Model the fold of this input.
Amino acid sequence: MILKYKDLKVSIFFRNRKTLKLEIVDKNHIRVTAPEKTSMNHIFKFIDKNEKWIYEKFLLKRYIKSISQENTKLLFFGEEFSVKIITNEKERVYIKDKTIIVNGKDKNQERIKFLLKEWYRYHTKRYVETRINDFSHKLKLFPGHIRIKDVKTRWGSCSSKGNLNFNLRLAMAPRRVIDYVIIHEMCHLVHLNHSKEFWSLVGKILPDYKEYEKQLKEIETYMII
Ligand SMILES: [Zn+2]
Done:
């Protein structure tokens, strides 16, 4: 069965299985495999719940196509850069003339993506650690471990043990937006939820936080690595 849902083409297969499965077929085309008697309503809810994941996968496909054309744009601390891939035995990533240059042993997409991610991870770690150090003293809030992770669905998180995790792609954002993410997570050291009290604490430190939330959403379209 094929139907339209929002701007997606959805192929639905009913099979003898226990859980719902989601796959990307093509641009704007997904496949859902569902247990035999699943209702349409349930399937649509499942798609809704995974919407973000679906669009991330689409973006990834666009990346693979465009990087071969070498016209991909990436953000670095809020500034837009073109990306150039060069085959070179010595692998490294650096900036030259408004261009992010990736030296890869070959032009293998996965490898290039990996090199770029490690480059972002390095810059994110350096910036985040310095800022947490500054903010800790100002706010009198001291987190446990700081980890920089390869996650696609969130910019940061705070564990119940007070450890903070940050997305390695944070270095794409302007510094003031990264500061917001850091302060947001540090406020979770006080309130481990998104209660009114939590937001009022964030607002006390950063009255413009809503603007930063908006900017983060915009940056998500660049999250193609
Ligand atoms: Zn939060």
Observations:
- The chain has three domains: 2-49, 67-118, 120-222.
- Residues 109-139 form the longest helix (31 residues).
